[in-house]
Specification:
mainly alpha; two-stranded antiparallel sheet; 16 helices; globular
């Protein structure tokens, strides 16, 4: 293919039609269309509810129930963090995308420092995959915050708020990763290896700071103490993210390299990495439930989430992949394991976000479980099913990943094996 050189980058000379309307981009557009539909659904419920009317406001403007209805009409309940609906599918997806994407970038940077040449030759594709997932996570959380909230956050900045902790983090992290990708694409191997260490440190920094941010949000009251009292949960997020990251990398290898000579060797590296981190995650699961909050542990192991935990998380993330990768075999077993851990990893995030708040009420006053609302009946279980709009946005965020990856691949052929010098 004919190339155009710009700032050392070899850019494929490709028509606008082939760049923007190939089959992968059409899939991305379809998914983004689903996300737009979801955004419309969520915004409609948040801002266009008919719960409070002008007629009711004129008749009895001081009625407390009317005030509550007006609050519902303005702020809504879908996708909003509140005492009644502590977390949402947006948060689950945001955490999954951010941790998995930064995990991919960390593992690639680590391979660079460990002089694993084969990974270095395909590092550009992996880095772009990880970065695309980070952007998909930011897309999800931007939808959760919504434009009106972000507008007022900018006008009235609160440096202790989660958004203002995230902004400097990603304003530093993303340019570093983009520069690393630039060095890989321009075959500057030595400079790329030097930058790998800061990128690796920043990737772990993303995980730790995100944990701190979510921990602050989880401790909105003393009842949500799961994250704030068990710092070893940081390891769970990092280790489980590495398992999901290897799954995404395995799928990437299958799609981009299955007909190439390096395919089997790359898949064997993924198999070995997956075996190590799955084993580590299994050991952590055994240890974690011995030391973690017993109410939460019983809720996950024996409560309403038990089927999702054992069937969607333990079986797909640990048991089945371990059996498939424990011995060397055909690469297809690693591919199946990769798909399993990607799905199971998301189930794990969902369980932790929703399960971590399904039993958030404490007996701190010695008078029984606290109520969430003045009119509510006290309950020991708090769970709200994801709204259709949330589901559409989360599924649609995959379109962000495909869009970014395919644009990079069409312009720079990031799926090719690169011999560095």
């Amino acid at each position: 293919m004919e190339k155009i050189e710009f700032l050392g980058l070899e850019i494929n000379k490709i028509s606008i039609k082939n760049l923007l309307f190939n089959k992968f981009m059409i899939i991305a557009y379809a998914l983004l269309g689903l996300a737009i539909f979801g955004i419309f659904e969520v915004f409609h419920i948040r801002y266009f509810s008919e719960a409070a009317t002008a007629h009711a406001s004129g008749i009895d403007p001081t009625n407390p129930e009317l005030k509550a209805a007006m609050k519902l009409a303005v702020f809504g309940t879908v996708g909003e963090v509140s005492r009644e609906v502590p977390w949402t599918l947006f948060i689950s997806n945001y955490m999954y995308m951010i941790y998995t994407g930064s995990g991919i970038i960390f593992l690639v940077a680590l391979a660079e420092l460990m002089h694993i040449d084969l990974v270095a030759k395909v590092a550009a594709g992996f880095m772009v995959t990880g970065l695309s997932m980070v952007f998909a996570g930011l897309f999800t959380i931007a939808t959760d915050l919504n434009m009106l909230n972000m507008f007022w956050m900018i006008l009235t900045p609160n440096v202790n708020a989660g958004m203002w902790m995230m902004l400097p983090l990603y304003c530093i992290y993303i340019p570093f990763v983009l520069f690393e990708i630039y060095l890989l694409l321009t075959n500057k191997r030595e400079l790329a290896k030097r930058l790998a260490l800061p990128v690796l440190i920043l990737s772990i920094g993303v995980d730790l700071i995100e944990y701190y941010i979510q921990g602050k949000l989880f401790s909105m009251n003393t009842a949500r103490h799961l994250w704030t009292e068990f710092p070893s949960l940081t390891l769970y997020f990092i280790i489980s993210a590495f398992v999901s990251s290897l799954g995404i990398m395995g799928i990437n290898i299958y799609l981009a390299h299955k007909s190439k000579p390096e395919y089997k060797e790359l898949m064997d590296l993924i198999r070995k990495g997956m075996l190590f981190f799955i084993s580590l995650l299994g050991l952590y699961e055994i240890f974690g439930y011995l030391v973690i909050d017993k109410d939460w542990a019983f809720l996950i192991l024996f409560g309403p989430f038990k089927y999702l935990y054992f069937g969607g998380y333990i079986f797909l993330t640990l048991a089945l992949p371990f059996l498939l990768v424990v011995k060397p075999g055909k690469p297809i077993w690693t591919v199946i394991s990769s798909v399993c851990v990607v799905i199971g990893g998301f189930a794990g995030r969902y369980l932790f976000v929703y399960g971590g708040n399904a039993n958030p009420m404490s007996n701190r006053f010695g008078t029984g479980y606290e109520k969430y609302d003045f009119y509510d009946v006290a309950s020991t279980f708090n769970y709200v099913h994801p709204h259709l709009g949330e589901i559409c946005i989360v599924v649609g965020s995959v379109g962000v990943c495909i869009l970014i990856y395919k644009l990079f691949d069409s312009l720079f052929s990031i799926g090719d094996l690169r011999e560095h010098h």
